[in-house]
């Protein structure tokens, strides 16, 4: 079983990803660290604790910071995830579970050091907590097993951005943090829009899940109704893209994905702020601020049917 910490802003698709990790026999969900993004940091944390109570998760929950490293925070995505982050379902005001008394990035540092070479970090929100962990304890880079990021868009399969024409939301939300995380000397795989927008959970799929998964189906149906309405109104989709759960599925079944290796950079200012750039060739250019960076992996294709089946069968 892979020991995993999920860094997340739950968030409807985040909640679906967390539940997949919880349900999977391949994953030991050790911790959940929260970040701002889809909703406020307070809502993210409350929602993580709510999931922990409702589905008896064993994971420790640690709250993260509430602002990006450099830029001001962009407004929460209430049109996509609702005012409470979970599609405006009723959430009890008090949760039984509580956060631990460590900030998210300290929890990440301490847990990685306690389990050297065993922890996979899966980031499905802004990358602020991971960047803070690296800045405070750069030595964790060599102690983390793997870093899987739902974020970025490299233009494969026509997918370039969702928040701006050229930027994906998790990267745009803290581009400086994203640039630090992809430049560190640890093994990163980016599961970006290039693949997450290939897989769609249709209305029929969610209805079927509701009738077959006694444990999770009704909950997923309830939270995703709001999300599906947004996708229908915005893009005319029947259903919604599989963003965050794709990163969990990469951890479980990487063979479903086609990857390429190269240097990654994130644009941190200007009209292309938040764009992720990929240099695959080994050529060193006359002006080259790339070659000192480690080669990381990006996903360029996915076997959608198998991915959707894996989610369905696990739940
Ligand atoms: C990412 O942005 C958030 O809205 C989703 O939860 C996902 O992590 C997709 O761009
Ligand atoms: Ca997310």
UniProtKB/TrEMBL annotation:
InterPro entries: Inosine/uridine_hydrolase_dom, IUNH, Ribo_hydro-like. Keywords: Glycosidase, Hydrolase. GO terms for cellular component: cytosol. Residues 4-308 form the Inosine/uridine-preferring nucleoside hydrolase domain. It comes from Pseudoalteromonas citrea. GO terms for biological process: purine nucleoside catabolic process. It holds the Pfam family IU_nuc_hydro. This is Nucleoside hydrolase. SUPFAM superfamilies: Nucleoside hydrolase. GO terms for molecular function: purine nucleosidase activity.
């Amino acid at each position: 079983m892979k020991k995993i910490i999920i860094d997340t802003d739950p968030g409807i698709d985040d909640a679906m990803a967390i539940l997949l990790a919880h349900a999977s026999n391949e994953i030991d969900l050790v911790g959940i660290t929260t970040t701002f993004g889809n909703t406020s940091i307070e809502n993210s944390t409350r929602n993580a604790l709510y999931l922990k109570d409702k589905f008896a998760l064993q994971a420790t929950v640690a709250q993260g910071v509430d602002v990006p490293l450099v830029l001001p925070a962009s407004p929460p995505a209430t049109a996509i995830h609702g005012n409470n982050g979970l599609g405006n379902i009723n959430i009890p005001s008090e949760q039984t579970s509580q956060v631990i008394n460590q900030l998210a990035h300290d929890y990440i540092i301490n847990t990685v050091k306690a389990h050297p070479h065993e922890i996979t970090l899966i980031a499905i929100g802004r990358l602020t907590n991971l960047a803070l962990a690296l800045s405070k304890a750069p030595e964790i880079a060599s102690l983390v097993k793997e870093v899987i990021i739902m974020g970025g868009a490299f233009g494969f399969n026509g997918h370039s951005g969702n928040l701006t024409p050229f930027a994906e939301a998790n990267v745009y939300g803290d581009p400086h943090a994203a640039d630090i995380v992809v430049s560190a000397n640890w093994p990163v795989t980016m599961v970006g829009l290039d693949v997450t927008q290939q897989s769609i959970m249709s209305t029929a799929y969610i209805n079927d899940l509701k009738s077959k998964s006694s444990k999770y189906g009704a909950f997923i149906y309830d939270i995703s109704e709001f999300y599906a309405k947004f996708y229908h109104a915005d893009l005319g989709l029947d259903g919604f893209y599989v963003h965050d759960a794709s990163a969990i599925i990469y951890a479980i079944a990487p063979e479903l994905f086609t990857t390429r290796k190269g240097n990654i950079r994130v644009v941190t200012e200007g009209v292309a702020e938040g764009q992720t750039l990929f240099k695959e060739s080994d050529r060193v250019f006359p002006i080259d601020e790339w070659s000192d960076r480690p080669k990381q992996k990006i996903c360029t294709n996915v076997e959608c049917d198998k991915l959707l089946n894996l989610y369905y069968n696990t739940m």
